[in-house]
Amino acid sequence: MQARMKNPVSIVPGAMQAIQALIASTQKSGAPEALLQLVHLRSSQINSCGPCVDGAVRHANQLGETDERLFAVSAWRETPYFTAAERAAL
């Protein structure tokens, strides 16, 4: 199977810097880092960014997130594992 397009970060000038700036600003928001990693994982799944999914899972694991919850992020609406605040973010 061939990808529909190359990763935009590799072809759009300034895209990586913009993404890094967005990540930096969300980290300053006061939201728990573990929640930010869950949101990063879900957005990476939606955007089909394999390296981003891998990174989000690794970082969430380092923060103590359980495999059970990480596996359920893609189906968060149908699982009982997330709080109301986490559901709002996801």
Protein architecture, described:
With 90 residues, the chain is mainly α. It has a domain at 31-89: Up-down Bundle (AhpD-like), CATH 1.20.1290.10. Helix content is 62%, strand content 0%. The chain has helices at residues 8-11, 15-27, 33-46, 50-62, 67-72, 84-89. Helix 3 (33-46) runs antiparallel to helix 4. The longest helix is centred in the middle third of the chain and has 14 residues, at 33-46. It starts with 7 loop residues before the first helix and ends with a helix. 10% of the residues are buried. The model has no long low-confidence stretch (mean pLDDT 90).
Helix/strand order, N-terminal first: HHHHHH
Distance between the termini: 29 Å
CATH C-level of the domain at 31-89: Mainly Alpha
Q: What portion of residues belong to β-strands?
A: under 5%
Low-confidence stretches: none
Largest beta sheet, briefly? none
Structural class: mainly alpha
Give the proportion of residues in helices.
55-70%
Structural shape: globular
CA radius of gyration is: 14 Å
CATH architecture of the domain at 31-89: Up-down Bundle
Number of strands: 0
Write the CATH fold name of the domain at 31-89. Answer: AhpD-like
